[in-house]
Amino acid sequence: VSLNSSDYQVHLGELTITLSPNFSTVKQIILYSNPPGPPGSSGDIALVQLGTPVVLSNWVWPVCLPEASANFHPGMQCWVTGWGHTREGEPLKPPYNLQEAEVSVVDTETCSQAYTSSNGSIIQPDMLCARGPGDACQDDSGGPLVCQAAGSWQQAGVVSWGEGCGRPDRPGVYARVTVYVNWIHHHIPELGNSGMQALPCIPLLAGLFLPGFLLLLVSGVLVAKCWLGRALDSPSHPTSGP
Prior knowledge:
Elements: E1 9-10, E2 24-31, E3 46-50, E4 54-56, E5 63-64, E6 77-82, E7 99-106, H1 108-114, E8 116-117, E9 120-121, E10 127-131, E11 144-149, E12 152-161, E13 172-176, H2 181-187, E14 199-200, E15 208-210, E16 223-224, E17 226-227
Parallel strand pairs: 5-16, 14-17
Antiparallel strand pairs: 1-2, 2-3, 4-15, 6-7, 6-11, 7-10, 8-9, 10-13, 11-12, 12-13
């Protein structure tokens, strides 16, 4: 995987993977290993600094960054989205529309039992597990896992890995965002203080600008510190603002 920022473009507001002429360049890629990364973590996460500001609209809006203390409890219903395979060995077919799947959070003990090797469980504290019947699949890596919590959509995880796709005894494994919140604030302190105005978690006004420092998780998902607004009907079907 290239770490050269000039090799990437960020396309926002797209529902298909056909590239539009409207994109932002990437100024910087920040790997998890930069201090102060969480100790003993797998670190399957990164930040991307945009080279140009983002224009917000009903179709381009940040998901909420959870508090480090947020609890996405077992059984909680969440959504994962992406353009990856729709089944094992079946790539997404034209017109390449964004896909979504509802999954529920799995407790760590159950997930650890599903992924136990001769050296013990390979599930780390910074991993969160969820299963469907829907699931993330090949080429969905880096995609967002979002959950409704406290009246807003919050990003609970980032698609990381799994064995197969949609197997009942093999949950999908995600990077647990709450473990990295302090690391994110270290690199983007504006998210943790009053210097940056908090954003409502619902689309209100088009033409609003965000500066280029706003973070992206690996998938290209905008994240911001948000007010707790009412949750949308579905993460991929936003409602109109008042």
